Amino acid sequence: MKDLSHMLPASRNRSQPRANRPLPLSGMDYSESHRKPQVLGKLVIAVIITAVCILILKQSPSFSGPSKFSRHEPGVTHVLVTGGAGYIGSHAALRLLKDNYRVTIVDNLSRGNLGAIRILQQLFPEPGRLQFIYADLGDAVVVNKIFAKNAFDAVMHFAAVAYVGESTLEPLRYYHNITSNTLVILEAMAAHGVKTLIYSSTCATYGEPEKMPITEVTPQHPINPYGKAKKMAEDIILDFSKGSDMAVMILRYFNVIGSDPEGRLGEAPRPELREHGRISGACFDAALGIIPGLKVKGTDYPTSDGTCIRDYIDVTDLVDAHVKSLDKARPSKVGIYNVGTGKGRSVKEFVEACKKATGVSIRVDYLERRPGDYAEVYSDPSKINRELNWSARRTDLQESLSIAWRWQKSHLNGYESASVVAL
Ligand SMILES: O=c1ccn([C@@H]2O[C@H](COP(=O)(O)OP(=O)(O)O[C@H]3OC[C@@H](O)[C@H](O)[C@H]3O)[C@@H](O)[C@H]2O)c(=O)[nH]1
């Protein structure tokens, strides 16, 4: 058995010991059946544990076992959700499962959380609803096996590293993870006749446009490796789909915030990547006292208050756009959509909303600009409003942040613990 416990996220709150449970993974299998009894010789305990393991194994489809997903059942859409252990992917998987889709999640857990998968498994324990496969999309052989064993109807490709700052420091990681892995997915789709793709792209592909708001025909001139890698992936997808009967939807997300309003899932980024973290995570970390204060990166931008302008879209609205895209995807058609609210908010405005949502007077330090940042981006969402009948519903920044804050407060160690604190 391969011990992959080092891949679990480190404790977010240094004052609390890390819950060091070894990951129950064996090769590519995901199963809780591999735990060994701690005390040898205690036969009765061993028998009970074995019985429990068999029960759990029955509930947790494993990659190498007979797949309950290998048959194509008419009327049930089976969606491959790459990156389904991550922030957006897990929220999308939850919505798909709620809407009665069958879901297979593939994730290498490099940025996502096994805890999110466990929550989804608890919510949807029925055999044949949710399958989790621990695998890296960079491994074409494994990806092909996954496609060969499963009859996917559609792919939602979320899996990606997604920090603008990190991308400027580690560009090759971004090109590999985003661009190359998309190629692997497309090749597997072609080889196995899967013809529907919903692709997670980003406003970062536009770079620093001259005109606001950004429409889908605004020229794309990305200025950081993250945006460039996503743009390349988009181009490959478009070339690949040309002249084919592929149904493709490319969704260009603006800045995603919030979490499941019912508090089942949240955003739990890797603590070791905190320095690259997004503004929402940084605000919450500052409010929780995990970091001494929030660093506002750049106050000399040509904007109303000197800080960057972004369009913050709630994750619940974003996953709704995915479900609508899947519904409206048609053979031989490509749809490209901005997914945003259409409203630009400055970093200073964001910080004020975060202070109100958390009730904490967060300390704010003003620093130099962050490499790779653009001054102002916000969307014109009229195309997606019109064509997919989608519009953002939760447009109150403070409300989205309040929902996310509730989850953060009750998950000080991310998915590893649910210790509630009174602030
Ligand atoms: O600690 C921080 C983090 C961020 N910021 C600022 O907040 C603004 C937003 O930065 P974020 O890192 O949250 O988000 P970005 O706009 O860089 O990209 C984000 O949105 C588009 C998505 O596709 C990307 O995946 C996501 O990272 C920037 O101006 C940034 O400099 C801070 O001032 N302090």
Automatic annotation (TrEMBL):
Residues 1-30 are annotated as: Disordered. The keyword Membrane does not apply. The keyword Isomerase applies. GO terms for biological process: galactose metabolic process. Keywords: Carbohydrate metabolism, Isomerase, NAD. Residues 80-394 form the NAD(P)-binding domain. It comes from the Eukaryota. Pfam families: GDP_Man_Dehyd. GO terms for molecular function: UDP-glucose 4-epimerase activity. NCBIfam families: galE (TIGR01179). Belongs to the NAD(P)-dependent epimerase/dehydratase family. This is NAD(P)-binding domain-containing protein. It comes from Zingiber officinale (Ginger).
